[in-house]
Amino acid sequence: MPFSSLHNPIDLARAQAALDDAWKQVKPMIEDGDRERERTRLSYIVASLVMLALDEEDLVDRALRQYRARQ
Asked: Are 43 and 3 within 8 A, CB to CB?
């Protein structure tokens, strides 16, 4: 589970909201058969950045940059 390392409920909520927002932007570009794998990949990226981000918007931006850089 990508968010299992997050113990603070606020960080967990921030990560989930950022993942949902980032996924809305990425999902239309992903083929149906790859969506589960790519959402999981994005969730690990979000989890790795949650402590570095200034706020939810910054977290989304950072996650999308990293996700797109590794496509």
From this structure: yes
Q: pLDDT by residue (tens digit) across 31-70?
A: 999 999 999 999 999 999 999 999 999 999 999 999 999 8
For residue 36, the enclosing domain spans 9-69
- How far apart, in Å, are the Cα atoms of 59 and each of 32, 34, 45? 25, 23, 10
In the chain, the amino acid numbered 12 is: L
DSSP SS3 for 10: helix
| Number of compact structural domains in the chain | 1
> Considering only CA atoms, which of 8, 29, 22, 32 is closest in space to residue 59?
22
5 Cβ contact partners less than 8 Å away, ≥ 6 residues apart? 47
3 found inside a domain = no
